[in-house]
Amino acid sequence: MPHDPIQEQRRLNMVARLKNHGIKNQPLLKALTHIPRHLFVANSESHLAYEDSPLPIECHQTISQPFIVAYMIENANVHKEDTVLEIGTGSGYNAAVLSLLCREVYTIEIHPLLQKKAQALFKTLHYSNIHSKIADGAFGWPEAGLFDVIIVTAAADYIPQPLLQQLKPQGRLLMPFGSASQQTLIKITRTDQGFVKESLLPVQFVPLTRLPERNIAS
After folding, report:
1. What backbone phi and psi angles, to 5 degrees, belong to 211?
2. Is the pTM of this model over 0.90?
3. 87: Cβ–Cβ under 8 A, 6 or more apart, which residues?
4. DSSP states of 140-170
5. For 87-119, how does the pLDDT look when each residue is reduced to its tens digit (9 = 90+)?
6. Which is catalytic among the residues 64, 91, 99, 132?
7. Annotated catalytic, 53?
């Protein structure tokens, strides 16, 4: 990756702002200093890549603002031996950050254009522990086994049951829950007694895209 001192300084400024806004996880902050976020946005938006705001990407999707990315990953309590499932690859930035924090990342994208672009970028940047595929993310990735962490990067007014079933004991699922106009970031932990749900903060995400011929009841 060519050295770009301007973007590197913007990235350091972004991480400093995240610290000021309460992000404390040191491995996460270190990962954020290494991931070239400007490569995960459109060239026309690269000068805005390290601002704390969402940006549009192809297929009417967005890349989340850096604070939300950091907040979700910090609250997922990701460890270096964890296996993580991400629903909604988007441009690939979330998966890239996660790849520096855990053992394996499995990421699903329903839009072929986004999946192929992200996969090519993972290869270019040598993120060898990221596995990606095109699929309906609400069904998860059952053949990959159970996951320590599942992060959903699009909102729904139901919790897909396959995702709950693919959580390991003590596994954590984070997702934006609610309607288009009112959403809350929730965290679900699988305990010996069942699933425990916490509400974290108000958010605004694009809706979870589904294949039209398939449905999952909440």
Report:
1. -70, 130
2. yes
3. 108, 137, 138, 140, 150, 151, 152, 153, 154, 163, 175, 208
4. --GGG--EEEEEE-SBBSS--HHHHHTEEEE
5. 999 999 999 999 999 999 999 999 999 999 999
6. 64
7. no
